[in-house]
């Protein structure tokens, strides 16, 4: 199972949020690049990068920082936040990004996902962020009437091969991911699924591995010290 240390970028700094609420932003590194390089030194071979400002402004904002992280680390980097157009995807592809994550744009316009998958193939992933099982958008500020399983099945029919699932209620809490939702999702679709939100320690990683998930995104646990890359890589 792939482990993706998370580097969330807001106002040029590396921050952590609680349940996706921007008012809870806590700076954990002044330099996102320093955070990324630290993870590389610990043995990470991939990174999960989030442009939080971009998610609010609906366009790439911290793309230059993200491109620099990708260049200087040389790791497999996936990025999400504010990606709304084919030009946005092209911008990151030219920066050397390995995977682009569509969120709000995928919910609003499934046809855009179809076009992106047809053009960029495996570069494209979709992030499903859910609250009480319903998909959220716009930096998690809006809750739709679309159930996460229905949305996942629609994405699979389009041709998507990779999903990231986050239960917003668990994000940043260290209380564990929503294993029930992940299990249902794993049985509903045949895509590669990465779990995100709430992971605290090795026991959570071990449980996700047993479920056969493709990957896990670890954020607060790594910054708070409840999880060490050396024990799970």
Overall form = globular
Element pattern in H and E: EEEHEHHEHEHHEEEHEHEHEHH
Radius of gyration: 16 Å
Number of strands: 12
For the largest beta sheet, what order do the strands appear in spatially? 1-4-5-6-7-10-11-12
Helicity level: 25-40%
Residue runs with pLDDT of under 50 for 5 or more positions: none
What is the rounded distance between the termini? 9 Å
Q: Largest sheet, described in full?
A: 8 strands, parallel, barrel
Strand-residue proportion = 25-35%
- Overall mean confidence score, pLDDT: 95
Structural class: alpha/beta
CATH topology: TIM Barrel
| Oligomerization state | single chain
CATH homology superfamily name: Aldolase class I
The CATH architecture is Alpha-Beta Barrel
Give the C-level CATH assignment.
Alpha Beta
Give a concise summary.
Helix 1 packs parallel to helix 3.
